[in-house]
Design brief:
Pfam families: UQCC2_CBP6
Oligomer: single chain
Strand content: under 5%
Main location: mitochondrion
Order of helices and strands: HHHHHHH
Number of strands: 0
Organism: Microcebus murinus (Gray mouse lemur)
Distance between the termini: 54 Å
Structural class: mainly alpha
Largest sheet: none
Shape: flat
Subcellular location: Mitochondrion matrix, Mitochondrion nucleoid
Helix content: 55-70%
Protein name: Mitochondrial nucleoid factor 1
Radius of gyration: 21 Å
């Protein structure tokens, strides 16, 4: 079962802009953990495994995108897919966190760097 299902992990793209938060990386880790013994792994719940596989295969093949097409590729805020990818990248989120730090916290970090 493992080899016939593993293709989905190989096909799922890895988004390098979302370090530590990427679905493709997460899926690879979970499959590797679940099927540590390769083809010899005994699946305790084959129905649940099949259901999860089918759900991921539908997402990967854009089944729902084609079933329920959107009239435009923008959102209610008017942003495009590319703009959302930029906003949700790990680097941009880190910048937002830095901007939201209070003045006191920034000063503490600055003094800690000078002490070291």
């Amino acid at each position: 079962m493992a080899a016939s299902r593993y293709w989905l992990c190989e096909e799922w793209p890895v988004d390098e802009t979302k370090r530590g938060r990427d679905l493709g990386s997460y899926l690879r880790q979970r499959v590797a953990q679940a099927f540590r013994e390769g083809e010899n792994t005994q699946v305790t719940e084959p129905e649940a495994c099949d259901q999860m596989y089918e759900s991921l295969a539908r997402l990967h093949s854009n089944y729902y995108k084609h079933k329920c097409p959107r009239p435009r590729d923008t959102t209610v805020r008017g942003l495009s897919v590319e703009e959302y990818k930029l906003i949700l990248s790990t680097d941009t989120l880190d910048e937002f966190k830095e901007m939201n730090k209070g003045m006191w916290k920034k000063l503490q970090e600055k003094f800690e760097k000078h002490k070291a």
